[in-house]
Amino acid sequence: MTTADFYGYEDLLPEEERKILCKARDFMTTEVKPLVNEYWAKGEFPRELIGKFRELGLAGVAYEGYGDPLQRGSHLLTGMLAMEYSRIDPSVATFFGVHNGLAMYSVYAGGDQEQRDRWLPAMAAMDKIGAFAMTEPLGGSDVAGGMRTTAKREGDTWVLNGAKRWIGNATFADLIVVWARDVDDNKVKGFVVEKGTPGFSPVKIEHKIAFRIVENAEITLTDVRVPEANRLRNINGFRDVAEILRATRGGVAWQALGVMIGAYELALAYAKERKQFGRPIAGFQLVQDLLVKSLGNITASWGMLVQLARLQDSGVFRDEQSSLAKAFVTSRMREVVAWCREIFGGNGIVLDYDIARFFADAEAIYSFEGTREMNTLIVGKSITGESAFV
């Protein structure tokens, strides 16, 4: 149990799921933590860890019939796993979130049985790494109605043209789920593009100040030919895509919780060790105020996400519920990383102390999977019955 689990939320997991969570915690602490600052500074993903991720065996934990059946888990477990990955490094958590969440769930929910059987076993084993290509250079929040990437059917082949931006894992992924608008019926469709397909060109985005370990790419699609067999057959418009995003948006809120916990634990340990005026700064009232406010945000956010997971497990989960969680928890995360960085004083801007990485990476989590403003409007429409979208 982490020092941030003030109300004992982890105890809600059954024993077998707690073992899986502890397995992930040990892996992140021993295998990932020693490397993250080096790779964050270089702006590269530690690809040599993919083999160890494969041995960890947690990629298929959310999917019935795929992955290790001994490591099947509830939505509460999968949420806490996202939290646990982010507690050490949110970039690595995003690697898992893109592969295990967005890409695999697109195939699981959007593909038919033949497609699921074709791709998911290799993805669950992490023999094939996935990516999810929706956001475009000129389209983010308005991508539902403004998607510019096109798909044109020619016999048993689809021809894709356009561009995507901010696509995590795309520089090395084996299977990229690309979303495009059918020029004939104007509906959004999903396609699995395999690595090395002619006309598919991913270029890594450089000079980021956040999520530097995530290899985001700008993708150019020039007459990319994809067989009809690679079109996700259960996707018949953006409404189906929205179902996928609804399911994964809650995972981003769990990531934000993990960032809060990671920052809080660093600040608490530092406050106990750092001495000023002859005593640990943990004994100063203003430092305790920052720590307690941080713990309050963590505890409140955790409680919201536990109930969100229960709603998912019960099958009565709604889009606006994940939107409220994403908007609320990421806003609280922003407060916590600022308060915790403040406890470090000048040392808080030095990468060696870890907290600067959390402070910077929080900005990416705050923005993706729907901005606070967009998620606010989704909830606002739900509670008022009035749409405030442009």
TrEMBL record:
<keyword id="KW-0285">Flavoprotein</keyword>
<dbReference type="InterPro" id="IPR006091">
    <property type="entry name" value="Acyl-CoA_Oxase/DH_mid-dom"/>
</dbReference>
<feature type="domain" description="Acyl-CoA dehydrogenase/oxidase C-terminal">
    <location>
        <begin position="236"/>
        <end position="383"/>
    </location>
</feature>
<dbReference type="Pfam" id="PF00441">
    <property type="entry name" value="Acyl-CoA_dh_1"/>
</dbReference>
<dbReference type="InterPro" id="IPR009100">
    <property type="entry name" value="AcylCoA_DH/oxidase_NM_dom_sf"/>
</dbReference>
<feature type="domain" description="Acyl-CoA dehydrogenase/oxidase N-terminal">
    <location>
        <begin position="15"/>
        <end position="126"/>
    </location>
</feature>
<dbReference type="InterPro" id="IPR009075">
    <property type="entry name" value="AcylCo_DH/oxidase_C"/>
</dbReference>
<protein>
    <submittedName>
        <fullName>Glutaryl-CoA dehydrogenase</fullName>
    </submittedName>
</protein>
<keyword id="KW-0560">Oxidoreductase</keyword>
<dbReference type="Pfam" id="PF02770">
    <property type="entry name" value="Acyl-CoA_dh_M"/>
</dbReference>
<dbReference type="InterPro" id="IPR036250">
    <property type="entry name" value="AcylCo_DH-like_C"/>
</dbReference>
<dbReference type="InterPro" id="IPR045008">
    <property type="entry name" value="ACX4-like"/>
</dbReference>
<dbReference type="InterPro" id="IPR013786">
    <property type="entry name" value="AcylCoA_DH/ox_N"/>
</dbReference>
<dbReference type="Pfam" id="PF02771">
    <property type="entry name" value="Acyl-CoA_dh_N"/>
</dbReference>
<dbReference type="GO" id="GO:0003995">
    <property type="term" value="F:acyl-CoA dehydrogenase activity"/>
</dbReference>
<dbReference type="InterPro" id="IPR046373">
    <property type="entry name" value="Acyl-CoA_Oxase/DH_mid-dom_sf"/>
</dbReference>
<feature type="domain" description="Acyl-CoA oxidase/dehydrogenase middle">
    <location>
        <begin position="131"/>
        <end position="224"/>
    </location>
</feature>
<dbReference type="GO" id="GO:0050660">
    <property type="term" value="F:flavin adenine dinucleotide binding"/>
</dbReference>
<dbReference type="GO" id="GO:0006635">
    <property type="term" value="P:fatty acid beta-oxidation"/>
</dbReference>
<comment type="similarity">
    <text>Belongs to the acyl-CoA dehydrogenase family.</text>
</comment>
<dbReference type="InterPro" id="IPR006089">
    <property type="entry name" value="Acyl-CoA_DH_CS"/>
</dbReference>
<dbReference type="InterPro" id="IPR037069">
    <property type="entry name" value="AcylCoA_DH/ox_N_sf"/>
</dbReference>
<keyword id="KW-0274">FAD</keyword>
